[in-house]
Amino acid sequence: ADSGDAELELSAVRHQPEELEELLARTKFSKKELQSLYRGFKNECPSGLVDEETFKLIYSQFFPQGDATAYAHFLFDAFDADGNGAICFQDFAVGLSVLLQGTVQQKLTWAFNLYDVNKDGCITKEEMLEIVRSIYDMLGRSTSPPPRDSAPTEHVEIFFQKMDRNGDGVVTFEEFLETCQQ
């Protein structure tokens, strides 16, 4: 078993430069930043992959006053670019690069994809309400003053009044982009 582990480690080391070069090309992180992010990622996820349950546990630590489970689910889906049920370091680095250093267009595309829960190219009120409720749940009742129970629905109605420009009950990417850029 030890020789197998050694082979696996050597294999990983041999493949690292290509992966690092690819990430340097796909992200706006420097080599040092990627190495630092990788150390933190491997520290939290020694296997190199994060499944949804682990992601929820890690993310919930940032919002102890509320329930971050539902929002973490949507965030996990947004980071899991290939939809394989796990976030690898590459998925994480590319997503984080967009959020932190992407263009306005890239950030808006990422946000749209987060809200487009079923990935059909448009956002419905139901999808938006799922996300907004999850955000309110994550923030918990510690906000002052505490939000009304109707706050998520009101938030979604305001969103749709601004975004659904043709009044068809869904927000397309073009509507989303146009409204956000204004």
Automatic annotation (TrEMBL):
Statement: the UniProt record of this protein carries the keyword Cytoplasm: no
What InterPro entries does UniProt report for this protein, alphabetically?
EF-hand-dom_pair, EF_Hand_1_Ca_BS, EF_hand_dom, Recoverin
The terms under GO molecular function for this entry are: calcium ion binding; DNA-binding transcription repressor activity, RNA polymerase II-specific; potassium channel regulator activity; RNA polymerase II cis-regulatory region sequence-specific DNA binding
Q: Which GO terms describe its cellular component?
A: nucleus; voltage-gated potassium channel complex
Q: List the keywords (alphabetical).
A: Calcium, Lipoprotein, Metal-binding, Myristate, Repeat
Q: Name one Pfam family in it.
A: EF-hand_5
Which GO BP terms apply? regulation of potassium ion transmembrane transport
PROSITE patterns hit by this protein: EF_HAND_1, EF_HAND_2
The entry sums up its family as follows: Belongs to the recoverin family.
What name does UniProt use for this protein? CSEN protein
Question: Taxonomically, what lineage is the organism?
Answer: Eukaryota, Metazoa, Chordata, Craniata, Vertebrata
